[in-house]
Amino acid sequence: MSVAQGIAHPRITSGRPSATAPAAYSTAGTIIPAAAPSSGFHTHWLHWMHFDVRVASTELLQKATGVRPTGWISPRSTPGVRTPRLLLEAGYDWHGDTLNDDLPYVVQFGAKSIVAFPNNTEVNDLPLYMKHGNSPRMMVEIFEDWLDCARKRETGAVRMDPAIHSHVFTRQPGLGMYERIMEIARAAPDIWIGTRAQAVAHVRSIMKE
User: What is the pLDDT of residues 7-23, one digit of tens each?
Assistant: First the structure.
């Protein structure tokens, strides 16, 4: 969908099916194609997985998709205490397991670092539709209201993460509403559209200045 719109976007896949049935992802090009510019790992496993098992899971995902995941998001952004450090040890560049800020920031662990990329759910089909049963059209209204508020009140960079899930808004009319959000974003001269990996690279470049 977003490929048709000409919009770069991260691909998020669940750890359990990608680890237990990687072949299913090798043919699901619309989920994580080999040319994907950014990918993320979305899983419950990190809370209890042994390091070797976690690394093996990452390698399975890379083998199935042709892309090594660079980021990690735990379900509902609920990490364990050691999650960021373990992810860094496993070679991940960023994680989305924090809600304590609006913009990405760098977390140091000795000489190495990982970027914390805060999640937000203002424009997200799970709470909007699955939990509260709102009309899909409201997703567009919230996005437009958020843009209006950001333009009037914010003085620096802000970010929004409109998100839909394959089992929720990839069906009509939710899909149509998400496409409308992309159309609004593409037409706006003050909006930059990119993947988390691209944003993380920008954050790291600023930190070097």
Answer: 655 555 555 555 555 55
